[in-house]
Amino acid sequence: MATGLDSRAAASTQTDDPDSQVVRFGPDAPLTLDCGVSFAPLTIAYQTYGRLDDDKANAVLVTHALTGDQHVANDHPITGKPGWWDLMVGPGKPVDTDRYFVICANVLGGCMGTSGPGSVDPETGKPYGLDFPVVTIRDMVRSQAMLLDHLGIETLFCAIGGSMGGMQVLEWAVSYPDRVFSVIPIATAARHTSQNIAFHEVGRQAVMADPDWRSGRYLLEGTNPKKGLAVARMAAHITYLSDEALHRKFGRNLQDREAITFGFDADFQIESYLRHQGMTFVDRFDANAYLYLTRAMDYFDIAADYDGQLASAFLGTPTRFCIVSFTSDWLFPTEGNRQIVHALNAAGARVSFVEIETDRGHDAFLLDEPELFGAIRGFLDSAARARGLAGHEAAP
Amino acid sequence: MATGLDSRAAASTQTDDPDSQVVRFGPDAPLTLDCGVSFAPLTIAYQTYGRLDDDKANAVLVTHALTGDQHVANDHPITGKPGWWDLMVGPGKPVDTDRYFVICANVLGGCMGTSGPGSVDPETGKPYGLDFPVVTIRDMVRSQAMLLDHLGIETLFCAIGGSMGGMQVLEWAVSYPDRVFSVIPIATAARHTSQNIAFHEVGRQAVMADPDWRSGRYLLEGTNPKKGLAVARMAAHITYLSDEALHRKFGRNLQDREAITFGFDADFQIESYLRHQGMTFVDRFDANAYLYLTRAMDYFDIAADYDGQLASAFLGTPTRFCIVSFTSDWLFPTEGNRQIVHALNAAGARVSFVEIETDRGHDAFLLDEPELFGAIRGFLDSAARARGLAGHEAAP
Q1: Backbone angles phi and psi of B232, in degrees to 5
Q2: pLDDT at B6
Q3: How far does B35 lie from chain A, in Å, by closest CA?
Q4: ipTM score for this prediction
Q5: Considering only CA atoms, which of A179, A211, A148, A114 is closest in space to residue A318?
Q6: What's the distance, CA A38 to chain centroid?
Q7: Domain identity same for B325 and B235
Q8: Residue B58 sits in the same domain as residue B173
């Protein structure tokens, strides 16, 4: 693994000068945030795959999760690993780049090139740190709409994403119902639960407890709160897996040893695995971005603006919904996804619901789950026919 | 709340000079530990309630959980709060101190007066720190047997405890089947799962990431890793509660404010609650003790010594078992408790099993749960009649 300074350098290089396409919006085009701040300048870093049709009708927006980024289907510029949704997005894959023009932008508040707490504040010439405004899921979606305007795309054929990505997808349907023909929110919720806020708060406190965090000024002071961020990642990672998956994968197996050592080394494979997850995460992620993005998720509550009535948020929507959940996901359980389905039904929306049987927990949306791929492919085919996309014309 | 140094002082005062009865075993009576160390001298701090019958047949051993201690039913010497099982133990309570002589000892490796990493090593005159041997649940039970020998108690009428206390109770039945007439393991497991080891490892890493931990030498160096320990406690505390309980108790309610503040203060009640749990815990607990006790739980696996056959551990046991679980306990789920019941059935043991319907999660064993109290009272009454205890004679 890289040393602390190396990893800080790697992450901040992508923050300032990403290996992605970039669009910059100047002071003449500020983004008004939910917190009231008029934010400018705004940089958005994004990747695209496939070709935009002449009528610009085949655009699919992929939205990423908390620790994801825009590198959906290309090798990652820091880790060198395949894109995080390489199984889902590509030629002949369920989100087929031979048919669709796929866009994924690093979220607002992130650390891979879109404006975030690690970006340089042009007013001071220094990284924002905690002076960066606290953003919401809706703010992320607003910034994505600005990117689409820039690309000349009026309407998305589909918006698709899991977890925090699913929150953005739901927000797209609420904020811009006429700009998104179909949406596929996966393993998500219409609001963050108390338990989920609790896990996020533990992660934030772990970061803030690290003296190298320096009240958020670590980039200026040349430190990196990597120990705190690694602990945050370890705690979060447990919630992404199911008890069954952990049992099947690790059980009580020992790590490269015959017997317990009566000490605090990583005797068990699960300990070694978690430590590895923590250590590698800090090489590619910025601690303040972790604070901002977890906060955006905590604040997410669609019904809050509709007197607590989720159905009201979707009344009269023309968008087609495909809601997907996983049986063993205890972070975003089926029940929360079912509540979205009920609200959509009450609002008279077109909705499909797929609960996928798997023991892999929340992370199942990132894994090789044939039933998931089949469901997405089927829904997209059907939506493409309804939309009259080239190669998908409805039967005469 | 007390400052770091105050709280360290409070905790270490109880470590060195507890407000409890104390027995000291010298070098002539060493305790042979599972790790191979012959440990001496050994101090055990304990509380008793009620009166021991002349025939010494009415002794009940209460075993405490990870962050519990011997102060079961008296005000706590550091916090001033009522004992942790004040609802369960006392005159007229389910574990009735008018009938039973109740003993609870601080566990080996703890920080409330029994020998642990915060105790002074007589060879060096300094606190052991990480030189304290890594102990197991079986070692704790062996030390409790030494205490009973000291008190002249050959056989316990009952051993009862929840969570890590339940592990000790199970180990009592395995290690000393002829010395314990009945046992009540509550909300526990015969071995720690991968997920539970994972949560413990996060807690340990949070402690060790705190620079004030000083590689375990903080007592010598005058520091206190309270930030790391608070994060560990916060993460663990989430696992003690159910998703439903958190939702009912906190939901997305805001803490003393009308709207979210777009910042990293504790906007939500659940955040404020968790921070409070973390901060108060460090006033009464020693960070190294937390490492040692979580490790003892991780290492717990009764079947490991019986070729993986749990039933073999209980073959021919004369002890009466009452296994108790809670429907919403996801840390020590009913399933793990049911596996113990199946093993006991296979071993031909006398076993009752009670699954209590509650939405309060793992911590239910500490709370006002009338069904739990009724089950314990009933089992103890029946066992007392079978044992022929005074006032409980079997009908002629």
Answers
A1: -60, -45
A2: 47
A3: 6
A4: 0.93
A5: A179
A6: 24
A7: no
A8: yes
Residue type (1 letter), B52: L
Q: Do B264 and A204 touch (CB under 8 A)?
A: yes
CA-wise closest residue to B387 among B49, B58, B29 = B58
Whether residue A192 and residue B252 make contact (CB cut-off 8 A), yes or no, is yes
A112, A168: one domain: yes
**Domain extent for B140:** 4-192+303-387
- Among B57, B172, B37, which Cα is nearest to B107's? B172
pLDDT per residue over B226-242, tens digit each?
999 999 999 999 999 99
Beta-carbon pairs below 8 A across chains A and B: 152
The CATH number covering residue B287 comes to: 1.10.1740.110
Chain B CB contacts of A266 below 8 Å: 201
Alpha-carbon distance of A17 to A255, in angstroms, equals 39
pLDDT tens digits for range A87-114? 999 999 999 999 999 999 999 999 999 9
CATH number at residue B326: 3.40.50.1820
In a domain, A4, yes or no: no
**Do A21 and A140 have their domain in common?**
yes
Kindly tell me if the per-residue pLDDT of B90 is higher than 80.
Answer: yes
Q: What is the mean pLDDT of residues A309-323?
A: 97
- The whole-model pTM stands at 0.94
Q: How many domains does chain A have?
A: 2
Distance CA(A163)–CA(A367), nearest Å, equals 14
User: Does A165 lie in the same domain as A203?
Assistant: no
Note whether residue A144 is domain-resident: yes
Give the Cα separation of A317 and A319 in Å (integer): 5
Q: Are residues A108 and A245 in the same domain?
A: no
User: What would the pLDDT profile of B117-145 be if each residue is shown by its tens digit?
Assistant: 999 999 999 999 999 999 999 999 999 99
**CA distance linking residue A225 with residue A118, whole number of Å:** 13
The one catalytic residue in A119, A163, A175, A182 is: A163
A247 is catalytic: no
What is the model's pLDDT at position A253? Answer: 95
Inter-axis angle of helices B269-284 and B4-16, to 10 degrees?
50
Euclidean distance between CA atoms B289 and A381, whole angstroms = 59
Q: Is A175 annotated in the active site?
A: no
- Residue A339 tokens, joined: 């509540």
In terms of Cβ atoms closer than 10 Å to its own Cβ (0-12, 13-18, 19+), residue B19 is middle
As a whole number of angstroms, the distance between CA A105 and CA A63 comes to 7
Contact flag A198-B271 (C-beta cutoff 8 Å): yes
A170/A35 same-domain check: yes
Q: Is B328 helix (H, G, I), strand (E, B) or coil?
A: coil
Tell me the catalytic residues of B.
163, 329, 362
Q: Cα(B227)–Cα(B236) distance, rounded to whole angstroms?
A: 14
Active-site residue among A20, A143, A362, A363?
A362
Q: Which of A134, A230, A235 sits opposite B235 (nearest CB)?
A: A235
Looking at the fold, whether A286 and A378 belong to one and the same domain comes out as no
Determine the pLDDT at residue A59: 98
Give A131 to chain B, closest Cα distance, Å.
10
